[in-house]
Amino acid sequence: MLLTAKRRAGRTFPISPTSQRSGDAEPDVDEPISAELFSIERLEQHAATLAAAQQVRPPADRGMAIRPRVAENGRVLVETYRVLAQAIKDERTISPAAEWLVDNFSVVDEQLREIRDDLPPDYYRELPKLAGGHLDGYPRVLGLTWAYIAHTDSLFDPESLRRMVHAYQEVEPLTIGELWAIAISLRILYVENLRRLAERIVRSRADRLAADELADRLLGLGKADANDTSAALRQLSNSHLSTAGGVELFQRLRDQDPAVTPALRELERLLAAQDTTAEELVQLEHQRMATMNVTVRNVITSMRLITWFDWADFVESVGHVDEVLRSRSRFAEMDFTTRNQYRSAVEELARRSPLTEVEVATRAADMAEMAKDATPLDATDVAASQRMSDPGYYLIARGRPDLERAIGAHVQESCTIARPRGAQRDQVFRQIEVEKIDAHTMDRRRPRRHAPALAGEGAGGPD
User: Fold this and answer.
1) Residue 267's pLDDT band (boundaries 50, 70, 90)?
2) What pTM was estimated for this model as a whole?
3) Residues in contact with 349: Cβ distance below 8 Å, sequence separation at least 6, in sequence order
4) What pLDDT is recorded for position 292?
5) For the chain, how long is the longest CA-to-CA vector?
6) Under 8 Å CB-to-CB from 361, ≥6 apart: which residues?
7) Is domain 40-205+294-309 given the CATH code 1.20.120 in the classification?
8) Which pLDDT band holds residue 38 (cuts at 50, 70, 90)?
9) What letter would DSSP give residue 390?
10) Distance CA 123, CA 158 (A)
11) 433-452 pLDDT per residue, tens
12) Domain spans of the chain, in order of start
């Protein structure tokens, strides 16, 4: 394990170009999702730059599947937990970062279940996919959340995320589905980052154990004989030491007399060939362990925070469609179920027309204002005018055919067409969330993507 292994074949997830690679980067272990720490103002600037640079694939392009990587991350984290738990059972020392992982593994396991439950295939296929870059083929919203995690050291803060999303949408508005996908994207990437950190924890621990065994042989301890000591010295001479392994070996050998233990001189020669010293190596390893401990702590803390965060309120606060409807109608006074019906109708109409979601919402509001300005002929016309002066009349009620014609939406063959099973499941997920909010429960853990509602479904909107 002191020698770096060959790179894994068939990498299934990209490495961020902004990741900070240390001089001891291991070729078969992905670097953590980490970059320069940004202030909120820098995050906003970066979001605007990112929005201008990102290009998306055609809507029909399904992009890259993400479930296999999520499943692999789960397997790696479970195996890491078992290795570290066994080390604790054997009364072996583990790093503070490893202790964080073991003590809070129930939080990690909950995130894995949330991802499996909250990401229906139909929903994932609808998300716009990136064309180019290190996340080519993956959802655009994943690129945004990747940048957020990298530049915040994996520490979730609602206000910084809100401002970053606002800044991004000043250049390129996100779809309603993408806004709801921010929560699941954060979960996916926090798990991804923790997996990368876990691999480094396990690798460093294995390197220290291997260094211990080599030190025993070099010092002639245990059952080692003279021949074994010579062989160990030759192995040391041909090794490329990792940081963790080099530090462990140095700490075992530093109190020995170089005249009696030539391995110490050989270690110093080897480190000099790597353009470093033992003191520098120790300092680097301590810095790496401290940094890893902070990042693992941030990941676990963020997992807890996003579990209890009110994602429905977040989506409504940053959505451009909500902003249009709030500013031009009594949308904000309606209950969540009705507001959700409006949004679902906008999503569905935008998919069937050449217009964006914001343009569809704007057109519905325009038609409502035109109806409001019309002069009613009698009391019946007054009542009809009041209904028609709300955008919902054109989104989910009898005025919908007029809106469809106005936006050039292609007409569905039948309004009774059965939904695909995935979409049915997606709609059930969203309804569960709606019921939670309407009942004012405290469980806000599962923000769902809202499946489109058929015209006239539900209550609360105009007839």
Assistant:
1) confident
2) 0.81
3) 360, 395, 403, 404, 407, 409
4) 94
5) 110
6) 321, 324, 325, 346, 391
7) no
8) very high
9) S
10) 24
11) 444 344 433 344 344 444 33
12) 40-205+294-309, 207-292, 313-438
Give the DSSP letter string of 119-159: --HHHHHHSPBB-SSTTTTSBHHHHHHHHHHHTTTT---HH
Structure tokens at 53: 């640079």
d(CA 392, CA 389): 9
Please list, in sequence order, all residues whose beta carbon lies within 8 angstroms of the beta carbon of residue 374, skipping any fewer than 6 positions away: 385
**Exposure b/e, 56-78, CB count within 10 A at least 16 = b:** bbeeeeebbebeebbeebbebbe
Say if residues 135 and 146 touch (Cβ distance below 8 Å).
yes
Report the share of the chain in percent with pLDDT over 90.
56
> Which of 449, 264, 419, 199 lies closest to 340 in space, CA to CA?
449
Beta bridge pairs of residue 129: 139
**Cβ-based neighbour number of residue 315 at 10 Å:** 22
Q: What is the pLDDT of residues 3-21, one digit of tens each?
A: 333 333 334 566 555 444 4
